[in-house]
Structures are given as C-alpha cells and as structure tokens.
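Worked example 3 (structure in, sequence out).
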C-alpha cells in the first residue's frame, strides 16, 4: 500500500499538536485561576492536560511561555473580533451594541482567563506584558472610536473612562458566577450586563 501523501501526514500531526497545545492552555487557564500562576508547576499543567510534565516542553519552552500564550492569544482574539464587529456594523449604535454583546459573551465564556489576567498579568516577562497591554489598548481604542462616532460632542478622555468602566462592569462576572451557575442564569446575567453596559456608555 502506498504511504499517504506527506502533506496529509504533516497535517494530521499538526492538528494533533494544535489540539494538545489548546488542551494545555485550557488546563493552564483553570489551574492559574484556581491556584495562581505561582501555585502551578509544569507537572501540574501536564497532568491536567493528560500528558507528562516533560511533554509540555514540546509545546512551550517553560511556564512563562504558557502564561504569555494564554494572555496574548486572548488579547489578539479580542482585538480581531472587536474590529470585525465594528467593521460589519452599519451605524455607531449597532457597532457599540455589537461590541457589548461580544465582550459579554467573552466574559461569560472565559471567567478563568479574566481571573488570570486580573491576578497574574504582572507575572509575564516584560516584553510579553508590553505586548498584551498594547493589544488591550488597541481594543479599547476600537470602543472609543465607535463611541466618539455615536456622541461626537463628548471629549475623548471621558469616553475612554466610560469604556474602561464598562469593561470593569462586564469583567466582574468571575466574581458573580461559579461553575454551577445554570445556562438560564448565565443568559439572564448576559442580558442584564448588556443593558447596564449600554446605559453606562450613553448616560
């Protein structure tokens, strides 16, 4: 029997590797959220993802790289998603409401990441922390730009403060939910957060 084409073999390995890497990042989000970055070892990460501790090094050079990949990846996803929401909207109001939904959905689905961000951002290596903060500033700017289009008479400094306040509101969800919160409760909380965020932005 002929061997499968090289491209297919490489693709299969790549998919498996990406899957293991994603599993490690999911495990890291859970463990870092529960114990704090300094309370988790490489062996803990491997065990939670179903691999040996040394196998983690096939995907990341060390624990700082795991934290960097987790927080950088999330920040990149938020920026890309936020820009897409703004670009697809037909009006500033539609863009703002879409951004609010986008952020609320993120917060409800990624409570562990928010906990890690709040507590362990300072544990990142300097260059990685600078990258994450730069991505976050760019994401904030997407919101500020759309809010400025909606209320062009308002000073940008005030708009920026409003956006940061709304992030604080939405990202408070890890402190008001837990793993046993039902889907119905989460949906109701999502609706409440969207209404509150819109009111805060437009007050």
């Amino acid at each position: 029997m002929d061997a499968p084409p090289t491209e297919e073999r490489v693709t299969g390995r790549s998919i498996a590797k990406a899957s293991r890497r994603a599993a490690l990042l999911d495990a890291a989000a859970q463990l870092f959220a529960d114990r704090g970055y300094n309370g988790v070892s490489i062996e803990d990460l491997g065990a939670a993802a179903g691999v040996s501790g040394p196998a983690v090094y096939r995907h990341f050079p060390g624990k700082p790289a795991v934290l960097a990949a987790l927080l950088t990846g999330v920040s990149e996803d938020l920026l890309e998603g936020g820009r897409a929401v703004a670009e697809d909207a037909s009006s500033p109001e539609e863009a703002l409401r879409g951004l609010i939904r986008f952020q609320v959905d993120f917060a409800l689905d990624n409570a562990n990441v928010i906990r890690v961000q709040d507590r362990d951002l300072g544990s990142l290596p300097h260059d990685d922390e600078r990258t994450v903060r730069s991505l976050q500033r760019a994401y904030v700017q997407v919101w500020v730009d759309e809010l400025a289009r909606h209320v062009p008479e308002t000073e940008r400094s005030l708009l920026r403060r409003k956006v940061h306040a709304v992030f604080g509101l939405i990202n408070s969800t890890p402190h008001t939910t837990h793993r046993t919160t039902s889907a119905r409760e989460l949906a109701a909380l999502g609706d409440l957060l969207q209404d509150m965020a819109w009111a805060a932005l437009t007050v």
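Notes: The two ends are 70 Å apart (CA to CA). The chain has a mean pLDDT of 91.
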